[in-house]
Amino acid sequence: MVGMALPEASTIWLDGALVPWHEARTHVLTHGLHYGTGVLEGTRVFETADGPAVFRLPEHLRRLERSAHMLRMRLPYSTDDLTKATAELVRANGHRSCYLRHFAFLGYGSMGIDMRHSPVTVSIASWEWQGQLPGADAGITLKTSSWRRNDPNAVPTAAKATGPYLNSVLARREANDAGYDEALLLGPDGSVSECTGENVFAVRDGVLRTPPASAGALEGITQDTVLTLARDLGLPVRVENLLRSDLYAADELFVCGTAAGVVAVRSLDDRELPAAPGPVTDRLRETYGAAVSGADPRYRRWLTLVE
């Protein structure tokens, strides 16, 4: 959330119990606070005709589990446990739509690089969503960051882990200070990776292209959603390495992520796009909206009803 206070809810799920928002606390010597030993998921609840529904919750929880496995963290709750806890929290907070943050981290118990003696703490928080990117309706402005995306051989970029997010925080601050909405990060080899919290797509001659995980990009669940929607619409897609010049030459650019949705790019490095949003972006944004709201029956399998 940019420039806004977090809208508080009444409760947070913490280690198996609902606790008041301001009582969900942790010790200042928490291992994850000092060393970035945590994993997270951002998930959305959308209002549908059948009540609030979490979009692609099983995929998010499986990725949380995979991320924890990569960090040698054993989650004390199963995905079934966390599914039930998620619904319990949304009901308790009375949300019709909201953002969810699933978070597992090494807690208080030991201090130092050795992570073996710190317990795993798990929390789920929910709050009313007010948007991730400013000016998203008119298209956003991107700036290629001077920071490079983390090298997958240095940190596990396939894991959605807290420590590596410092990379995104610095890149976003640099872009915002320069007057841009978001930063584009290049991989260690100079190929296009992703933005600070979104995957990026380029459209040229009707073909969608997006970078692979080997470029340091997270295997985004919204990215996978867009690829599925595009194929169902008969649009050709390619997951392949891209150069920055490929984005400059694109007819359309857009970014996508759980928090952002599908958002058109108006300019990259002060180069205006021919259309923002373009016809392909518009079509995908509309189809995505129908999928998350339950309006398109083909994608109801992606919805986990809360009530």
- Compressed to H and E, one letter per element, the order equals EEHEEHHEEEHEEEEHEHEEEHE
Average predicted confidence as pLDDT: 94
- What is the total tally of β strands? 16
CATH topology value of the largest domain: D-amino Acid Aminotransferase, Chain A, domain 2
Q: pLDDT under 50 segments (min length 5)?
A: none
**Computed CA radius of gyration, to the nearest angstrom:** 19 Å
CATH architecture field of the largest domain = Alpha-Beta Barrel
Could you please describe the fold and organization of this structure?
The chain has seven helices and 16 strands. The chain has 307 residues and is α+β, with helices and mostly antiparallel strands. Strands 7, 8, 9, 10, 11, 12, 13, 14 and 15 form a nine-stranded mixed β-sheet that branches. A seven-stranded antiparallel β-sheet has the order 2-1-6-5-3-4-16. Strand 1 and strand 2 (17-20) form a beta hairpin. The radius of gyration is 19 Å and the shape is globular. Belongs to the class-IV pyridoxal-phosphate-dependent aminotransferase family. Acts on leucine, isoleucine and valine. Keywords: Amino-acid biosynthesis, Aminotransferase, Branched-chain amino acid biosynthesis, Pyridoxal phosphate, Transferase. One of its GO terms (molecular function) is branched-chain-amino-acid transaminase activity.
